[in-house]
Queue: 2 jobs
Job 1
Amino acid sequence: ADPIVLGCPLSTAFLYGWDAERAIKLAVEEINKAGGVQVGKEKRPFKVEVIDTRDLEPGVPVSEALLGVKKLILQKNADFILGGPIRSEAALAAMPLLAKEKKVSILSSGTLTPKYHKTVAKSPEKYKYLFRISGEAVWMVTGEIIPCLMDLGKRFNLNRLFIMIQDVGHARAGGGIIAKIMKKKGWTVLGDPVVYPTGATDFSMGLLKAKREKAQVILIWMDMPETSILLKQWNDMKIPALPFGSIIAAAEQPGFWKATEGKGEYCLANVVNAGNAPCEATPWTMKFVKAYEKKWGVEPEGYGSSSSYMAVYALKDAIERAGSLDSDKVADALKKIDLMGVYGRVRFDPKSNQVIPSLDPKEGAVGTIFQWQGGKRVVVFPPKIATGEIKLPPWMKK
Amino acid sequence: MFEANGLMVFYENMLALNNVSLACGNEQIIGVFGANSAGKSTLMYTLAGIMLDIRKKEQMAGGERITLRGEISFQGERVEDAKPSVRAKAGIILCPERRRIFPESSVLENLEIGSYLATREQAEETLEYVFEIFPALKAITRRLGGFLSGGEQQMLAIGRALMAQPKLLLLDEPLLGLSPAIQYLLAKSIKEIKEQRKTSVIVAEQYARPIMPIIDHGYILENGSAVVEGGRRELMDNPDVKNAYFGT
Amino acid sequence: MNFKKPKPNNGPLLKVSDVSKTFGGVQALSNVSFNLEKGQIMGVIGPNGSGKTTLVNAITGFIRADSGAIEYQGRNILGMAPHKIADLGLTRTFQVMRPYYSLPAYKNLIIPLFSPRARRTGGWRGGGKLGDRDTVAVDILEEIGFERDSYVPYKSASSLPTGYLKRLELARCLALRPEVVICDEVFSGLSMSEMASMLPLMERLQMEGITLIMVEHRLRELFRLATRVIVLNFGRKIAEGVPDEVMEEPEVKEAYFGSEEVFSYV
Amino acid sequence: MAKRANQRKERIDRGIKVRADGVYAISSWQEIGFLVGPRLTLILGLLLLPLVLTTAPYWQSVLGIVCIYSLLAVSFDFLAHYVGLVSLGGAFFVGVGAYISSLLNVELGLPLFVTIPLATVFGGAFCTLCFWPCLPLRGVYFAIVSLMFPLLAARVIEALDIFGGTDGVLGVEGFSSSFAEHYLPIASVLVLLFFLRRLVNEDLGLVLRGVKDNDQAVKASGININHLKALAVFISSSLGCLAGALLCHVNMWAGLSQFALDFSILPIAATVVGGSGTLVGPVLGCLILVPVSELLRDFGTLRIVAYAVILTGFIVFKSEGLMTYAARKYNQFERWVDI
Amino acid sequence: MDIIIYGIINSVTLALMALGFTLVYGVSRLPNFAHGALYVLTGFLAWFFINQFTVNYFLAGLGALLITGVVGALMYHLILVRVRGMAISEIIASYAIGLAILEGLRYGGLKGGTYVLRPFVDGSTSILGVPVDYQRILVVVLGALLVGMLWFFVNKTRLGLALKGMAQDERAALTLGIDSDRMAVVSMALGSVFAGLAALVLMPLGNIAVEAGYHVLIMAVAVCIVGGLGSWTGAVFAAFIIGFAQILTDVILGAHFQVVVALIAIIITLILRPSGLFGRQKELEERV
Ligand SMILES: Nc1ncnc2c1ncn2[C@@H]1O[C@H](COP(=O)(O)OP(=O)(O)OP(=O)(O)O)[C@@H](O)[C@H]1O
Ligand SMILES: Nc1ncnc2c1ncn2[C@@H]1O[C@H](COP(=O)(O)OP(=O)(O)OP(=O)(O)O)[C@@H](O)[C@H]1O
Ligand SMILES: [Mg+2]
Ligand SMILES: [Mg+2]
């Protein structure tokens, strides 16, 4: 039977691109092995068409990504768009195009901006084909990071927060919001967030400042690989403050330990959805982690792994229920989806097509915050799925 | 010692040198005289091998096509296909027209660069000699070449050529822009260079008056052909030459 | 641009007073003064590096003199931009020739002919209205010694030999219909026979009312034209006057020729 | 080609181009065909391509991109080879055009047929104003400063978080008819190409070339070179802004990445490949480079490598540029003659 | 205090990045836009040698430098020589080569933050109360040393002078027996080695990433131009101006404005001094 073409516009040279690519390929392989997708009466396999959009490469124009999406639709005859575009700007920019071409798309890696689903909610008719199955920034901050910080503060009696962010929109927005809320919650936020341009390689000034101001937690929001330098410097200078990565691409990867030669120990990182680090959120979680590790030789890496994997399954589910590949029908079916997945229950908000989050895997999609401990990623938040507890570096203990 | 036979140069379809032959013995001064566009510079470039380089550049840019024909031999060896740097190493040094000095280097540095082929002792010795011929340069060793006045640049260009320890010195319009006194002194020095440094010199000039008295042999170029040739006296006595190059 | 008619003034056309210029320690001009009357041909001579070109540059605005005053037609032009000075009719040639190498010779003249001044005046000899620029350009070149029907005016300037370039320099000035032309070594690089045609040309220019300043090293030819010369040495004016008299002054002899031997040669 | 002794290759002009009072004397139909042929090929070719490609909608949209890059390349070529200002800041023009057009469209609700011309003119004026203090700079110095402008503009918008910040301007109106979407860029390229070719051969164009060759002599001719340069920058940046405005409506989006280096570099590469100083060459260059880049898209990450290699190949083996080479071959024939 | 210390470190870092580019441009007027690529290449090669053949750092570095030098020389010999003198073609050709190298490395797996070189010396100390790691101190020392060496090479050695002559007027250099093509190969090789040296010293501070190539290129060009073409003092001064501008904005306005301020500093410097801090280009070109 004819394959169903999944077009994946991904920035494949970057973590948030290749994590999605690998996860999608894994899911497709599993599904095809099991016979494919039931469309009406026939079983059809999935076929993946990946196009490198390069949108995470600094300095590559977004129009590149748009052309990539266009190519998938017009030339590769993609039936559905999965995964990207990855960078928020690119994803936002692609919305009108996808709407114009009436393609069902499930965003599953990269893009965290709340603007995406808010835009969908604003013109639900126009954008009814656009879904996002991975987390978004507002919930991440208010639902996960803040509670985790509060926990941390209570446990170790910490309340001086220092914020270091990358010079990109989501980081600035995120950093700002965290600062505001934490202030309200009684923490001392030390000065304005320190902003680093993408590609910065020297963080000593900021770290020195943190030390001078007696910071106790350094909140980091950066999606550039150079962040590992920050942690090396942090360790070299023995800065007495705990690094907390709300988004910290470098520290999410299993290879981080080696890259920093262990100097990144104690760093906390948020990987958005459960399953991106080993844990037992649902029975499916470890199955996914194992399968991923078997196929690709590493544990799930970036924050787009489990969600991209689920995107394929969600699509399969929707197609089978719709019984056709028609965009309108599949979109309707997706809206009604209710699936127990790798990171909990997958349902979409009926207005904004955003996956519904929760702290409990039985209620919705759960997130994950882990800490590097002895070369392992130990999940510490949310409590329902945690596999360990937060520790402080020795030079912080008095 | 130096001989060129049947030189022909085409710029695209234009014949710039037509079957020119020229010879220069040991320790001789040869004069090449001609009006504008007679082909003097073309001849000098061809002798020094720069023409090969010009041709290469033109080819690269896809522009006009330059054709070279003829034989050149120096000290018994054929050099017409040799690169300019090889010829320079053999001792053929050109002091090009329009004073192509290095504008961003100081006068001293210009001379030092000139001594690329010389040994340290030679360089030091020649440096002094250059300052002797052109005392004006000595006062301005630290000034950038590009800021010099026209005449100063001309002196510097000649001095720099000397630094390269020429066995055969090709001077293309050396008098251009020099004050009369320096012109006179230069003519005298050319003779001195020949005698003291055992160097042969070929001078291309249109202003023949100061040069004529010092040459051993001369050629008159017209429209790319050597029309008259002869010893100094012969040329000076030739009425046509006298008319054209000495005025009345 | 519309300039007011200069006030009728009875002073000199160009009045240079006490102009000085140093380049980081090099005194290129010190307190040079002279007057230039309309219709004159004035020679400027001096050894190499004596500041002649610098003087030309200062008058035409290509460098800004440190002190002094330069008045042209009664108006102070010191510190004015070069193009404005040229627009007033005070133009110059360049010692190191600066043609537009990528253009054919006659197209070189389109540029001055395009200038506001040429449009106002019609170019050299133009009667106020500028005709087709190409034709005018070739006309000017012909007058100045490019054979009209030969290929020379149409050749690219980069392949022209020195002699023609010198004339092209002059032509570029004339195309502006100038009142004063400052020639910086236009004779050098010309052969005797070419000189023979240049001399009458200069005389003709003078007759047409163009005032000339000629910086030269070819003294013989210069002295046939110039009625007055000034001599520079180390940036100072050391003499001024009728050529023959000036040459007799010992300071000039000393500075310019060094020795009797040289003098007799010249 | 074998080197033959005592022979040389001669080139002779094919056409009998006689310049007489500003018109070409045309003697026969053959002559006319000879002169008009290549031009007609280009014009008709460009006009017909969208029709040919109706079955390949993707390539139709690529053609639009080709035209947009062509505008940029022509703008670069004009400024660099006819005025001597090598601008590495093409992206600045694109960005300014895109932002103006999209903001007018989104904020004031003007239709795109109004915003595009407005962005072209006002964008050009704005860019000229920005470049004004840099006009006296020469050569590489100008190039570098112009390179800084797009970087700076992007940074400023980002730092001050204006015009939508990093997200860009969303909801820009797209072309409603595909006819307009395909033909507007093509028409712009053709018309502007014609206009610029006229301009550079007019006297004004010559004067600009004079500025490139030797600005000192232009000054000595009583012409204010800063005004001329500003005029040239205006023309060139208007072209760039037009490209940017078109792009933002094609993409239905404008944002920071409109200032990306690609918009500066690719047009320059196209100019080098196509033949600099010919104006048509850059268009040709884009017609080759952009589709090549699209064809390579399937290579994934290897694409840029392949692209760079192809580009280098073009530059090395036809360093004069395709157009220069083709024009020479077309206009002249060669033969061996005895010396 | 920390401003001064880290300002100096940052400035020397910039100067190091620019050295190779300045060398090639200064002595052969060849804008080597593959500079950043060569920088990354050396780092990657060194990493490769260390991890694949487990040779020690010194040997690995030496090997990497050697290869980079050869790559640079070949680049000129095979490709750039054909577009010599056409500045724009040179830029595009070398940029394309650089792109091929960089993206080739990326394709070959150089992505993410997992590639790191170890510092020569681990650990840190504190100078006047400011913690500084040894590697950074080493950077400053080596930087100063290299700048000095280069200055000596260009101004005092025969080869250096010949290169300089060739850069200014190729044809005149030819008449003096300087073989311009060979010289350009030499300068490219040298420039590449210097790019590599910078990489070996600087990379242990960060990680080996493709993006660094683009960053280094932009910084090198900026430093070289702001300093004034071919002027060593200029390049060093420019590195300090830009370096301190960055650190100061970092402290006063926030790193946020770092790039904005650096860019504005560059633009203003050039508007005020049109041929860079120590360059005389404009005056020379306008001398009539
Ligand atoms: N690159 C070139 N392309 C085409 N023609 C050229 C080129 N160089 C020189 N010519 C032509 O060749 C002829 C000889 O020129 P050449 O420069 O040798 O003359 P010259 O005797 O040195 O004149 P001058 O004394 O004025 O320097 C001239 O007619 C000139 O126009
Ligand atoms: N921009 C500058 N910087 C430094 N020195 C300069 C500059 N311009 C000129 N000079 C110096 O000033 C002096 C006068 O130069 P100028 O060009 O006026 O001489 P000149 O009389 O025209 O000589 P020539 O007859 O050789 O052309 C020279 O010694 C020259 O080196
Ligand atoms: Mg000549
Ligand atoms: Mg002079």
Job 2
Amino acid sequence: MLQVEGVMKSFDGFMAVNGANLTVGKGEIVAVIGPNGAGKTTLFNLITGTLRRDRGRIVFKGEDISELPPYEICKRGISRSYQIVNIFPRLTVFGNVQVAVLSHQRKSSNLFRPAQNIAVEETRRILESVGLLNKEKSIAGSLSHGDQKILEIAIALGNEPELLILDEPTAGMSPEETSATMELVRRLAKTRGLTILFCEHDMDIVFSVAQSIMVMRYGQTIIQASPEEVRNNKEVQEAYLGGE
Amino acid sequence: MTFGGAELICQLLVGISRSMILFIVCAGLSFVLGVLRVPNIAHGSLYMIGAFATFSITKMFAGSTGFWIALILAPLLVALVSLIAERALFQHLYQREHLMLLLFTFAISLILGDLVKIVWGAEYKSVSAPALLKGSISLLGASFPRYNLFLILIGPLVAIALWLFTIKTKIGKISRAAAVDREMVGVLGINVSWVFAIAFVIGCYLAGVGGALVAPTVSITLGMDHTLIIEAFLIVIIGGLGNMWGALVGSLIFGITHSFGVLFWPQFAIVFPYIAVVIVLLLRPKGLLKSVW
Amino acid sequence: MERVIHRRNFLLFPVILGLMFLVHPVLDVKAQGPIKVGIIDTYSGPPTTYTYDVRDAFKLAIDEVNAKGGVLKRKIEFTTRDDKFKVDICLSMAKELIMMEKVDILMGTINSAATLAVSEYCKTEKIPFIVTFSKSEKITGEKGHRYIFSITENTAMIGKAAAAGLAKKPYVKYWIAGDDYEYGHALADGVWGNLKKLKPGVELIGQSWWKVGEPELTPYLTAITAAKPDAVIFATGGASMVNAMKAAKATGFAEKVPMFIHTATEHSTLAPLGLDAPEKVIGTSNYHFYYPDTPKNRAFVKAFKDAYGREPKVGALYGYLAAQFIVKALEKAGKMDREKFIDALSGLKVDSPVGEIEMRAFDHQAMLPMFMGVTKKVREYPFLIASDIVTIPAKDVMPSIEEIKKARGQ
Amino acid sequence: MFERMIRSNWFVPITVILIILFLLPIAAPRFYVYILALIYVTALLAMSLNMVVGHGGMFQFHHAVFYGVGAYTVALMLTKTKLPLWVGFIAGPLVAAITGLIIGWFCVRLTRLYFGMLQISLGSLIWAIVFRWYSFTGGDDGIHGVSMPSFLSSLNHSYYFILVVFLICLVLMYMIFRSPFGSTLQAIRDNAQRCEAVGINVRLYQLGGIVVATFFAGVAGVLFVVLERSVFAEMLFWVLSLEIFIMCLLGGWFTFAGPILGAAMIVALRTFVGKYTEYWTLILGVILILVIFFLPEGVMGFFQDLLKPASKELSERGR
């Protein structure tokens, strides 16, 4: 479904991503791991078009998307959530998700119909599926950190993506929240038939959830393989697992 | 129309000397923008206060000494005003929305404008250049005002002083770091509030220096703040926000295109700065030099 | 709870409205109250150099009249409004003076655009409007009407006067430089058109225009010096005047190239410059406190100095003239009736500090003489004054009635 | 829908205010009628700006240009051509919107201060044209005494005309504010990057917002001509842009009706305080600082917080 081939990106001469390769098959749950600064978030930014790669190819469903702007990539079925909470703080929880739903339904440019009557069903269904329906009227900026991270995911679901990219979905969460969130991710993948690409610091989560793991270091892909293989890979152990 | 080489050189020098005052004022504005992230509309008012204060101080002394004393004291007075404004009001607002800070500096500029009127009255004021810098010298057959020569010398001095300040002194280094990442500076246990205050005062001090230097060449009036501030913002923008060298480049572009513009296309003089900004921003959307924003 | 707050909120509105009504002064019973003059002018920023003198001289004259019991046994009262040199505020303030203060006569304004806007309003409201400082020739020319009067010079008059003076000088190659706005261009066109008529041999070798309020004029002056004209006509006003004079002095321009600037010899320009003003600049002005040296002028200068501790500038003449015209027209009209007042004011003559001035009946433009002189340092004053003054009589200064008719498309 | 309107808490107060506004010319002195009409015009201008600043999060620093373009268009059409009045009234906003499209097309490429300064530069070029083209625009003298047909000739008639147009615009703007387009703009203000990530072409929407806002600014320009019969180059100068910007911030730029309050406050201040002192800008400065310190969301934002104790509690609990 998604192929990343030899992608590079430098900032002022610093090679943030220096030859990353990644394959995500349909319906898979794939994790990207690597030490801080390995280039995971940059890689996600390249895939979603927030940054433009210097070299290499990013192919989604057979189409080269590496030159497309983010909104076009989104329209082709890739949604993402962010590591640092990245929501619409002054809108309500409902409004946050609705923006994405409206965009997905191509209704954002409607000038005169009240938004409160459009896409209500879909938005509420998403809120219900992540468990935020009871807080739909709250201002998003006032939610707890954990709820905001969930809202992150809910916004990403608004576009009804085929591929959902989650950048450290549990960052800053308590252990209970973390396990609940990962349970939610797993359930969503199953019920909605989503393909999921995520990165995460907690190795227990990674190895219990992911079907395939890609390991990065210094912006480079070391290996992409099943959890078993990764666990047993010498290079990975040296570079990363052993180091921590 | 043809011009001799002497006239062209003269015109270039006039352009540079004009750039120097712009540079000094804009460096201050840019410094505040970089460190505090505040578009300080009151900067123009402080420049105006600098000029008015120069007038008053010059009048207190007989002869030329007054001007030299004013050149020291007037900017210090401006710095004092800005310190009061910063400590009493501004420091409580750094967490606010940018546009609110803009509104705040606008409010300050309104207040300062009327205060100037109350203190100095509304009439034109004029300061004469010190005897040493009066009149003009002959330069390749064309005459060139001595005072402008003085400005050409003093501009680079200020630039070097500011540059040394930012790379050599502790406060300079901290404020440079704060421009890039203010959270980090806070983590290092540095009192960010005072760093901001000092940066603000230094920026405003430069506005005062600019006001004092400009005083002998123009009529000092209410409303000179308005004329300046918009130009200063445009310069800072094309140079790159928060970049001191950007302010220098921007000022030179403004000063030199202006002085040659009036030589060759005087009828379009009023649109030169705007066209310069449009061209620069369409080619380099973040200004010519690296911006800290 | 929520509803209560709602109601309080919307109750606020009638309360504000009610307060507005309370503030509104009850003025309907004013039959024998004072005659009200509203002055709308710029009392902030650089124009105050001129407008304060207008106001103060007007007050001086009105106080004198009121001390003697007023006109038609009624006192004259005036209120001022500051328009901040902005057209929209000027319009609002003018409307406020007319609608709320119910002034009988409106005067003032230094901003030409504002004057034209207020003039149109006065035309519809049928209020006499006496312009004290705006220089646009359109005011009493192209856009003139029954309700507008001007007691100040305008660009057409300056052009005629300057041309009359310059035609006598030997210069042939001219350069024109000035403030890039209506006043500058109109003035330049006026001088040049008339000069060309009087002396067809003159030649215009170039022009420079700078934006209004341009602080640094040195680049322009060096550019002009490079072109080596015989003389330069500067079409500037306000703060640019001082800048131009300073730059002329600093670059030594004034010694090399003869320059003409309207109002260069005027005290408003020379006073702030002190001894820094350049000598030998040719200028024109409606008024000097030292010229004409007549008893009437001396008396006026003394009264003004006693009251305000400074020498009167040209604005003072306008303010004083306004008061003289208003008082005399009221006396002639016999009562405060706007139409009668206008009839009385048209063609009226008053004995002013600069001699007898007539309000021309056709276009309601006061016929002012112009004084051309050259700046000079003298021992008596800490500033320069005009010397070698030549009086250009009003008849040589005024645009002809044919010209006015042509401008109005009649 | 209508039923819901009647049942709404706002129905009674709004109706009462409307009735007062419509009856006012009968009882009030003419000057208040004039000032109210001026407030409507200014408020419409401020609200159109707030569509892009408060709701769109763009640094629209030179909004006055579009107001001036609208006003000049109608004034020029009425004085230089024989076209019927309504053509001018429609052309004003349209030309303003087209100007908005052109300037906006360049500006949306940039962000924040760069956006704002580019707009000031481009707008100032238009200002310079108006200021310099004496034969066409009248230069800095402007055009005065634009004649209006008899149904708009008296102050009361123009008051009603302005009020009705103002109310229509208000309703339209409110609909846009609540529409998907409006909420998308607000989302862009909150977080443009995130909007791109949910499939929104941010620049396109920003440009759309600018066009809509400049259209309403053009309407305000037309209404100004109806009220004052004058246009002048100052209307396109950046100082006025700054003033309307201040009105939005003062009234409360995240609220819908805040700019109306801001405009009313500034117009009233300069008219009624300006009467007593030439230092009214000093007073304005002090008021602004008080607002910044004590009413951080603007005056209207403050009232809204009062009206919504529930949501405020919620937000506190959230923290």
